[in-house]
Structures are given as structure tokens and as C-alpha cells.
Amino acid sequence: xxxxxxxxxxxxxxxxxxxxxxxxxxxxxxxxxxxxxxxxxxxxxxxxxxxxxxxxxxxxxxxxxxxxxxxxxxxxxxxxxxxxxxxxxxxxxxxxxxxxxxxxxxxxxxxxxxxxxxxxxxxxxxxxxxxxxxxxxxxxxxxxxxxxxxxxxxxxxxxxxxxxxxxxxxxxxxxxxxxxxxxxxxxxxxxxxxxxxxxxxxxxxxxxxxxxxxxxxxxxxxxxxxxxxxxxxxxxxxxxxxxxxxxxxxxxxxxxxxxxxxxxxxxxxxxxxxxxxxxxxxxxxxxxxxxxxxxxxxxxxxxxxxxxxxxxxxxxxxxxxxxxxx
Length: 326
Ligand code: SAM
Ligand code: SF4
Description:
The chain contains 9 helices and 12 strands. The chain is of the alpha/beta class. Helix 1 (46-59) crosses helix 8 (289-301), helix 2 (77-85) packs parallel to helix 3 and helix 3 packs parallel to helix 5 (138-151). The site of S-adenosylmethionine has 20 residues, from strand 3, strand 5 and helix 9.
């Protein structure tokens, strides 16, 4: 089955959040005090999340990424992943993590059937990393990356949120990881989420990332696969990993959008930056498979063409990426 929206985009990718809790406090994602944790009753149970995943796959979703908050902090996540991996028709099962617990969990996640890991890593400097994450431990992330490969995973994709004056001096170090460690690295433009009136000072366009890299390396374009989503991908000749830019703010993004999102509370969203959301809970308690399938189709059909965020123009309402899943 094929899920196509009204702008002729094929929607084959679901980002499913399993928690809004996190063991870090990245300053661009949530306030220092954390987000107000939702009660256990409000969070969807694993059975409910499984129902959503099954329904989405039956409609044409082929890739599911589990996200959060930090998915590895939710008890029972490994068994949940194994249940997802068993859904007939699901071709790609991935998980995004901050890597703090990965060293311990990599092997069981691999055994459960997770195919790919994305690891968020914003600095290779321990102090800068600690500052951005308000307390995270870089050595744990690096140990997690190694453990993932030892467990059998392909080298995890590394996501770096690139911010002027914070970590842009490390662009070439991250580019070098695609050669030295074989990781693919994706530079994500900082998006205004946590309320910060001066957020524009942090903007660092993806094109400028490429410019900096081209000062040292030549870059060749990489043909993206069907599930790559809205990144533009390149490679340093001879490198195993690729370099991607996700220009969520400066452009070249929405026309390739292939995803829908569901939060840990069961709010489905067709666009990260749209205020529109649909509560799936009425279709889960008690389970109504037919109603659920119908409402998921409606969410795809109501996906907006794009968002209006541009560096310099947008004033935003306060939200935490941890509550939506990034
Ligand atoms: N805790 C996990 C992690 O950090 O990988 C998964 C959830 S996190 C919300 C998912 C992704 O969203 C991470 O790669 C994170 O860097 C990204 N993200 C969070 N806030 C962001 C922001 N304001 N701008 C751009 N990316 C952001
Ligand atoms: Fe936690 Fe991920 Fe948000 Fe950082 S980006 S605070 S690790 S949810």
C-alpha cells in the first residue's frame, strides 16, 4: 500500500516517541528544570504504541524510528523493540538515542531486531558537550558508539545540531569522523524550540557547513535511498560514512518530507512545526483498529505543504523537542 499526501509526497516514515523523559537537558531541547513529566497514565502503553505502529504499517509506513525524550530510559524498551521488529511489512526499524546508556544496551537492542541507531552528539570536546547537554558525559557516548559496532550494528549515524559560536568550530572534526570511524554525520540546523528571543544568533545554515568542509575536502553528492528523508547527502571521496545537511530552517526541506509523528501521549502530527495535532487516544482506549487507520490517513492528508520558519523572521511559541520526538 502507498500513503501519499495531497502534495504528492510519499509518506513512508513514522517517528514514534515512547517517552518525554530524558537523562540529559540539552539547552536547545528543554529547559534546565526539564519538561513537566507527563503522568504514567497519559503516556501510551507499549500495547497502544504497538497498535499505532501496526496500523501505520498496514497503511504503507515502511520505516519506524523510535525516539523521545530518551527512549532508552523507558523500562521494557528492548522487548517493545522486538515486538515492533516482528510487524510484517515493516522494512526499517531504527532508534534515536543520546548514547548515555548505549554501551550497556547496544547488544540487546541489536538482538531485538533494531537495524539502525542514530546517536545525537553535538561536540567532541568534553566541556562543550557537558555544557550543551547540561551534564552529559561524552565518554559514555563514545563508548556507546563502539559498543554498537561491536554488537553488530553498522556505524551509527551521528546527528549534530550545529550552532554558531557553540560548536561550529568542530565542523571539520565531525566531517573527519566519516573517514576515521565510518560514521555518517548529519548536520541539523538549530530550530527554535525552547523559548529564546535571541535564537537567531545560533543559526548556522547547512550551506555554510558545506562551505567550511569544502575548504579542506572535496565533496561528492550521494544518491539518497527511499527512506533518507529531507537531508542532502555528500561524501568525502574514499570515506565510508556520508555527510548530510538538514536545512530545516534555511530551506530545501519540506518538499521532501516523508514523515508523520506520534508523541508519547498519542498526539499525532503531520508537521513538527504545525500546531495541529490529533489525539489518537480515543482510538486506543478501547482499541478501534478501523478508526485508527482512518484517522492516520486523515493526518497524512492534512499534512501542510511546509512551515514558515526562516532565520530572522520567526517568533515562536515555547515547546520542547523532547515532547515531540525531534
Ligand atoms: N534523546 C534522543 C536524542 O537526543 O537523540 C532522542 C530525542 S531528541 C528530541 C531527537 C533529536 O532532536 C536529536 O537529534 C536532537 O538533537 C534533535 N533536537 C532537539 N531539539 C532540537 C532543536 N531545537 N533543533 C534541532 N534539533 C533538535
Ligand atoms: Fe534529551 Fe534528546 Fe532532548 Fe537532549 S535532545 S534533552 S538527549 S531528548
